Amino acid sequence: MTWRREADRVAAEARGRHGETLACDWLRDQGFEIVAQRVKTPRGEVDIIARRPGLVVFVEVKWRARETDLDFAIDQRRLTRVARAAELLWPEYEKAGDDMRIDILLLAPGAMVRHIANAWMPM
């Protein structure tokens, strides 16, 4: 890997972390407690795990430089990886009677947060 590619990767990682920080702030404003971030499993990674009474939410966060790029930020393959990871993590975070869902938060500078609740529906 060239030094330029490595620098690009590091910059992209920093932008992603910034987006996740903003997403956590937004979720807290919506009444969620953040219980975990960047949880890795053999099946994939979940950016944020949040909860409020009776609900555990596994959140995929996408940060883009331009609002117009948000329309293409998530696809079925990425969402499937999050769903597979959530399936493994669910027993660790559930409490009796909890529901679960997978949400997507799309963020860009100057844009309102796009929240897609319950984004995963198995085929």
Automatic annotation (TrEMBL):
Per UniProt, which keywords does this protein have? Endonuclease, Hydrolase, Nuclease
Q: Name one GO molecular function term.
A: endonuclease activity
Region forming the signal peptide: none
Q: Which Pfam families match?
A: UPF0102
**Which family is annotated?**
Belongs to the UPF0102 family.
Q: What is this protein called?
A: UPF0102 protein GGR38_001628
- Mind giving the lineage of the organism this protein is from? Bacteria, Pseudomonadati, Pseudomonadota, Alphaproteobacteria, Sphingomonadales
